[in-house]
Amino acid sequence: MWARSECMSHQSDADAASHADAQRGTDPRVVAGWSTDTELVREFGQAADIGDAVCLTVDEAVATWSELSETPSLLRFVDVDSLDGLFKAKATDNNGWLPSTNFQFQSCRVTLLYGASIRVIVDREP
After folding, report:
1. How confident is the model at residue 97 (pLDDT cuts 50, 70, 90)?
2. Rounded to whole angstroms, how far apart are CA atoms 115 and 23?
3. What's the whole-model pTM score?
């Protein structure tokens, strides 16, 4: 799935690293999560690259739901490289709220929650 993604093409060295990680059993593409008919949720460790997490989750949503399309791509709407600087390291203090952002992609709302883990949620309109 990563190979066909325009989103992941911004990191040519990521494939080589992912292959090495997969051989060691620590493949970063294998993440926790769940899905329903209208929602796809993936959780990544806090050290994950936020742009990659969003791209991976959106790519999976495109592959899962036939009404979504690879064109226009996510990169035409969102500067995924800038997502990594969106939250500060101490954004998750004990104030009781979880830093987040969301945006529309095609007929879906993509929500990014930054906490002890990075959660990406793709909600499609029913």
Report:
1. confident
2. 29
3. 0.75
